[in-house]
Amino acid sequence: MNVLITGGAGYIGSHIALSLLQQNHHVLVLDNLCNSSPIALQRVEALSGKKLAFHQGDIRRRADLNRVFNSESIDAVIHMAGLKSVNESLQKPVKYYQNNIAGTLTLLETMKQHQVNKLIFSSSATVYGIPVKIPLCENCDAGNTTNPYGASKYMVEKILREVVDAQPELAITALRYFNPAGAHASGQIGEHPAGIPNNLLPYLFQVANGLRAALPVFGDDYATPDGTGVRDYIHVMDLAEGHIQALKNLQAGYRHYNLGTGQGYSVLEIVRMFEQVSGKRVPLDMRPRRPGDVAICLSDPSSAREELDWQATRGLEAMLRDAWRWQVLNPQGYVVQPVEGEV
Ligand code: NAD
Ligand code: UD1
Question: Rounded to whole angstroms, how far apart are CA atoms 4 and 53?
């Protein structure tokens, strides 16, 4: 299959690109590199021993999309391009709606023009808002989102449902990721957030690396076994395989699935497991709850198992071990290390 990945140079997209190439699909990537590096794609090519077609451009620009769709025939699109910071979305909601919603509309118009009918969309567990029931299953209430980022994901899902009603030839699946973590086992590709990390694992790694003094633990008085927040972390390679299964099982109509493990870990459980895996000690800084956080967010992953024949196979230890390997090998992310003696 010829598969276009929008946002394919990013953290999750680069792992999907690798999995697709390893399964002998042809991969095209459209990315404006606003939060990624082309070095990720060079490493994907080196790891797979195969070439992909990279187009630098923006999903909001029709001309950029047309350039890609005219370059070769495309069978399916995996739409990952988007902005993902909850905090930034609260400061700059218009930027988030422009990028995540307007960008998707331009993509949908271009797909129609070029008669491309298959689409997988990167959605998020954030569409469930404050969970009313744990574990979260696909027919739990969604839409009661708490920030513009989450609202943009929910709105895109709604748009996709309506577009499918109007264009029954479309086959669209939205995948609601829980908490992606980990890296490819080679340590060659992974996540390197710019600035001060918001998410638990990137912050934890920077403390272990000596870049930050202590890990803030946001709240130890939740109704959880040790009082700290519980989440459903999923290995990015399991996530990548979930996309491949979703692609294989695409059918006309709109569907959405949780991609999670169904297993929850608290902040303190993560810290303890990381200390074992890395041999590093992680100083903690106990803080009040972070506004907007919930005690527990956990998936019921059974629909994806039953309908996509997919389930996560990698556990927390593998996530932490693989992500730590990436960190140790690439403390600055995808920065090209100067060769000694070179000017
Ligand atoms: P990422 O920032 O690493 O990747 C997103 C990529 O999209 C980046 O390479 C960025 O340069 C590109 N991009 C952004 N806007 C673009 C535009 N207008 N045109 C072209 N390219 C653009 O993020 P990620 O973690 O790989 O996430 C990928 C997708 O999955 C996003 O849509 C995100 O919202 C969604 N998601 C991520 C998480 C997570 O925790 N990482 C959780 C749930 C959902
Ligand atoms: C956050 C986003 C969510 C997004 C997801 C991407 C919020 C409210 N939600 O989810 O929309 O899809 O990231 O992975 O921002 N924690 C600490 N110290 C830290 C960082 C986090 O104790 O420095 C705790 C949090 O309180 C939480 C857990 O670790 O209990 C996980 O936090 P995080 O990695 O930020 O993910 P989520 O909040 O679940």
Answer: 9
CA separation (Å) from 271 to 21, 204, 278, 282, 313?
Answer: 34, 8, 10, 7, 21
pLDDT at res. 342: 46
Active site residue 257: no
What residue owns the CA closest to ligand 2's atom 38? 293
pLDDT per residue as tens digits for the range 260-300: 999 999 999 999 999 999 999 999 999 999 988 999 999 99
Q: Would residue 343 count as lying in a domain?
A: no
Give, for ligand 1, the residue of 122, 123, 160, 184 to mutate: max count of ligand atoms closer than 8 Å to Cβ. Answer: 122
Domain count, the chain: 1
Residue 124 lies in a domain: yes
Pocket mutation for ligand 1, best pick of 4, 5, 14, 34 (most atoms within 8 Å of C-beta): 34
Q: What is the chain's Cα-based Rg?
A: 20
Asked if residue 243 belongs to a domain, the reply is yes
Measure the CA–CA gap between 287 and 50, rounded to whole angstroms.
Answer: 47
Check pLDDT > 90 for residue 104: yes
Does the pLDDT value for residue 18 go beyond 50? Answer: yes
Res 341 pLDDT > 90 = no
Confidence of residue 343 (pLDDT cuts 50, 70, 90): very low
**Ligand 2 centroid from CA 294, angstroms:** 9
Q: Whose CA is closest to atom 5 on ligand 2?
A: 179
Q: What is the pLDDT of residues 173-206, one digit of tens each?
A: 999 999 999 999 999 999 988 888 999 999 999 9
- Residue 292's pLDDT is 85
Query: Residue 123: inside a domain, yes or no?
Result: yes
Out of 128, 149, 154, 334, which one is annotated catalytic? 149
List all residues whose CB is within 6 A of at least one atom of ligand 1: 6-7, 9-13, 31-36, 58-60, 80-84, 99, 103, 122, 124, 177, 180
Cβ partners under 8 Å of residue 183, min gap 6: 15, 189, 190, 191, 236, 322, 323, 325, 326
The binding-site residues of ligand 2, defined as CB within 6 angstroms of any ligand atom, are 86, 124, 126, 150, 179-180, 198-200, 203, 216-218, 229, 231, 267, 290, 292-293, 297
Nearest atom of ligand 1 to the alpha carbon of 13? 26
Residue 253 three-state SS: strand
Identify the CATH number of the domain in which residue 207 sits: 3.40.50.720
Boundaries of domain holding 325: 2-335
Q: What local confidence, expressed as pLDDT, does residue 139 receive?
A: 94
